[in-house]
Design a protein that fits this description.
The protein is mostly beta strands and 222 residues long. The protein is built from two helices and 14 strands. Strand 7 and strand 8 form a beta hairpin. The model has no long low-confidence stretch (mean pLDDT 86).
């Protein structure tokens, strides 16, 4: 295991017609952290270890990232509804790019109860009436994704996070990429984040993360 140090992320509201006049950044609701590990680091997924062993002539790093979503507070209104994390892998000259050969998770799910359907019976004036009712949570469970990854074998992987029934978008959500490096170059990763929060008074509002260039330009090798 590795310990990832989390950093506060400031969320800037996107200005929309009819949105609230208060355009103050949202603070204290989202933190982000990362670590760059050897490809053979303890705890690496078995599929990744096999991939690295099968390509001994290539150089890899494991990029581990953690997004931590915090619940609503009196000074930070709104519940997280959806968020996205994008990574842009690059070298200084741009002629060759590092590639996220494998990503984790491809999809992370939680069991969610279906709506269900039942029958109700009522006797009215000697006549049997049959009705339909849907007891909450009475249906079969199904898996709903809460984290979904895109961009395997691409230089710009991304992950989506969302809330589903009975599972708010809160707490720590780790994601990772096995990055194939460009040999002999400075390899970096730039992080972009966005989020949607739902407010009781004025609905859904979109935010973008203010990520200072220096702490969030992650050096993978070089």
């Amino acid at each position: 295991m590795t310990e990832v140090r989390l950093h506060e992320v400031e969320l800037l509201p996107e200005r929309t017609l009819g949105g609230p006049a208060d355009d103050e950044p949202l603070r204290g609701r989202l933190t982000f952290g990362w670590d760059v590990l050897p490809a053979d680091h303890e705890g690496v997924p078995a599929e990744w270890a096999s991939y690295v062993k099968a390509t001994p002539d290539r150089e890899f790093r494991q990029l581990l990232m953690v997004c931590s979503f915090r619940p609503e507070t009196p000074t930070g209104k709104g519940a997280f509804r959806h968020a996205s994390l994008g990574v842009s892998l690059s070298t200084p000259d741009g002629r060759a790019q590092p590639v996220a050969r494998l990503i984790d998770p491809g999809e992370r799910t939680r069991p969610v109860a279906g709506s269900g359907m039942g029958m109700s019976f009522t006797v009215n004036a000697g006549v049997l009436e049959v009705g339909v009712e849907k007891p909450p949570g009475a249906g079969p469970e199904r898996d709903e994704w809460i984290v979904r990854g895109h961009g395997s074998s691409q230089p710009n992987p991304q992950w989506e996070f969302r809330r589903v029934k009975s599972y708010p978008l809160a707490g720590d959500h780790p994601v990772a990429a096995l990055v194939e490096l460009v040999p002999g170059r400075l390899n970096t990763a730039e992080v972009l984040m966005a989020a949607e929060l739902e407010h009781r008074s004025w609905g859904i509002r979109r935010y973008r993360a203010r990520l200072a260039p220096s702490p969030h330009a992650i050096v993978l090798a070089g």
